[in-house]
Amino acid sequence: MNVNRFHDSSSGLDIVQVMPGALYVSNKGECITTILGSCISVCLRDPVAGIGGLNHFMLPGLETDCDKDSDTNNYGQFSMTQLIEKMEALGARSYRCDAKVFGGGNMFPNDQEIGARNIEFSTKYLKDMGIEVTSKDVGLSYSRRIRFFTDTGKVMVKRLRSLHNKHISEQQTDYKNSLLNIDNEFNTYDPTQPPGDRS
After folding, report:
1. Which residues are part of the catalytic machinery?
2. What is the assigned CATH class of domain 3-179?
3. pLDDT tens, 102-115?
């Protein structure tokens, strides 16, 4: 499922960590976290059903981006569809949902369009679906750690240090390259080591 669970001793929280190309939904009231560079996460919540979910995708998912043999959940078009479907399977309804959008940073010196394209895609997708975006923190040249509390819809955002940005950028470059290869190895990005400046 490409998620990890750990206990954060500084906050006392049990946390679900979503890796790149993954998503997680919950109807139990959980804290979901991920680390973003140029990738996008949409925190989606149905406040009536009390169901929330978060995804983490690398590219928009246009036909020119996708390889037929690749894991399509790494692309926004498919990741968003899966997120909504999994939430609706638990009882949520997309017309009741609101969204908060994060990421899309300018992390690649030689390719500054990835973050911008991800932002553009997520904005258009949610508008087309009639889902209101109530909050966002996107773009600019830094990475983010987010924590999404599915019971309240609250999101905590931590803008990470520049040194950590460089590390994430290097990892995401490897990850981006893996998406475009036929062998499709998706294990190069590992954000499981918090850098100490916890949210």
Report:
1. 39
2. alpha beta
3. 999 988 766 668 99
